[in-house]
Design goal:
Elements (H helix, E strand, L loop, with lengths): L29 E4 L4 E4 L2 E2 H6 L3 H11 L5 H12 L6 H10 L5 H14 L9 H26 L13 H10 L5 H13 L7 H10 L5 H12 L7 H12 L5 H10 L17 H17 L2 H18 L9 H10 L7 H20 L27
Antiparallel strand pairs: 1-2, 2-3
Helix pairs in contact: 2-8, 2-16, 4-5, 4-6, 5-6, 5-10, 6-7, 6-16, 7-8, 8-16, 9-10, 9-16, 10-16, 11-15, 13-14, 13-15
The structure holds s-citryldethia Coenzyme A.
Length: 388
């Protein structure tokens, strides 16, 4: 038995890797009910917000402001956001230059960083100025993502049209086409249910960064960097790649057996908090069926349902169920959106949650600074290089 190494730490050395279960702060922004598979934003269920007809803008207002807007407030908020959608020419030039040869999340991260470089007030860290920046980023990130898909397809960048809703304009800037009402409605719903989710990795990254009182652009870049990873926001892109790799519903079981044998994690399943179905997957399931059948990609939905049955039968007992990323890719694919654009769409939505949590924490800010238990040597003797 290896000799127990000294554990240097004052106080308890009990901890769970990955901060599992750790509490960072109090918040009234959202509650993720992991046991019962429920998600509420400021007390309202995401189901009610999706059906309420207020659109993504209503949810963004609710998350950032704390209350549902009255009609006049929502109209003013929508008008304010619509007026901020344009991006400066240097950012368009940057997208044109880098988007064809790098992952769209890299283009998004770099473009957001450049917006900060172009803002003379980027480092004025107050709730008021950060709210102003958050509003601009909420409006401009859809424009950046739309421009990125256009450039990657060799097409010209489309400028925003403030007369459209955020979701409609986002779809138009991405595809060059007017989305049909149902597509715009579903994109709106997708943005609502992706907008906020407690202390997930990207929100935590953004908050930790912001807790040093740095500029909001740097904090949002940290969130984008974390969201890109396949264990987090990148799972929607990875999940569709799984379905495409399986290809034929009849070979789903064979694929799953091979994945299990390799102890491979199945993308789109599992969650640090949910031990039941992710309520966002429950909302997306019928929409994925509708859109896949509309687009002639019904086989992808069939594969998803077969894989769901296999994984839940095998791992449901361990609390492994479909998460938000399981069906979303089937929907975006049916909308004609390129697969590597799926995670940027997550960021288009999550900017509201990142901003809300940063703005909530800022007035009573405290630097995030955890500790690690030291298990290394304590009194190593230094040996001159030629004697090593
Ligand atoms: C998002 O946090 C959030 O709120 C995130 C999010 C949000 O809105 O911000 O909800 C969005 O990121 C959703 C998750 C998307 N990621 C994926 O779909 C990637 C696949 N999922 C896994 O990597 C995993 O489930 C995580 C990362 C999501 C959660 O992992 P945990 O909590 O660290 O769990 P774990 O890796 O410790 O797994 C516990 C057990 C392990 O088995 P044992 O070693 O105990 O035998 O469950 C198994 C794991 O192997 N397991 C899986 C699995 N996920 C967990 N086995 C197969 N396939 C999986 N997907």
């Amino acid at each position: 038995m290896a000799e127990e190494k000294p554990r240097q730490f004052v106080g308890s050395t009990e901890f769970k890797k990955g901060l599992e279960g750790a509490i960072t702060n109090e918040s009234s922004i959202s509650y993720v009910d992991g046991a019962n598979g429920k998600l509420i934003y400021r007390g309202y269920s995401i189901d009610d917000l999706c059906q309420g007809g207020g659109g993504y803008e209503e949810t963004a207002y609710l998350l950032i402001d704390g209350e549902l807007p009255k009609r006049a407030q929502l109209e003013a908020f929508k008008k304010d956001l619509a007026g901020r959608r344009a991006i400066p020419q240097p950012v368009k030039d940057l997208i044109t230059q880098i988007a064809p040869n790098t992952h769209p999340m890299n283009t998004l991260r770099t473009a957001v960083s450049m917006l900060g470089c172009l803002n003379p007030k980027e480092f004025e860290v107050t709730v008021e100025n950060d709210l102003d920046i958050a509003m601009s980023l909420t409006a401009q990130i859809p424009t950046i993502v739309g421009a990125t898909q256009r450039v990657r397809r060799g097409e010209s960048i489309i400028d925003p049209d403030p007369s459209r809703s955020l979701s409609e304009d986002f779809m138009h800037m991405m595809t060059g086409k007017d989305p049909d009402p149902r597509t715009a409605e579903v994109m709106d719903m997708a943005l609502i249910i992706h907008a906020e989710h407690g202390m997930n990795a990207s929100t935590f990254s953004a908050m930790v960064t912001n807790s040093s009182l740095t500029d909001l652009y740097s904090s949002i870049c940290a969130g984008i960097g974390s969201l890109k990873g396949p264990l987090h926001g990148g799972a929607n892109e990875a999940t569709l790649k799984t379905f495409t790799e399986i290809g034929d519903p009849a070979t789903t079981e064979e694929w799953f057996s091979a994945a299990k044998a390799k102890k491979q994690k199945v993308m789109g399943f599992g969650h640090r908090v949910y031990r039941a179905y992710d309520p966002r997957a429950v909302i997306f399931d019928p929409v994925a069926k509708e859109f896949a059948e509309r687009a002639g990609t019904g086989h992808l939905y069939e594969i998803a349902k077969k894989l769901e049955a296999l994984v839940v039968a095998d791992l449901g007992g361990k609390g492994i169920f479909p998460n938000v990323d399981f069906f979303s890719g089937v929907i975006y694919n049916a909308m004609g959106i390129d697969t590597d654009m799926f995670t940027p769409i997550f960021a288009v939505a999550r900017i509201a949650g990142w901003s809300a949590r940063i703005l909530e924490y800022l007035p009573d800010n405290r630097l995030f600074r955890p500790r690690a238990v030291y298990v290394g040597d304590l009194e190593a003797q230094y040996v001159p290089i030629d004697e090593r």
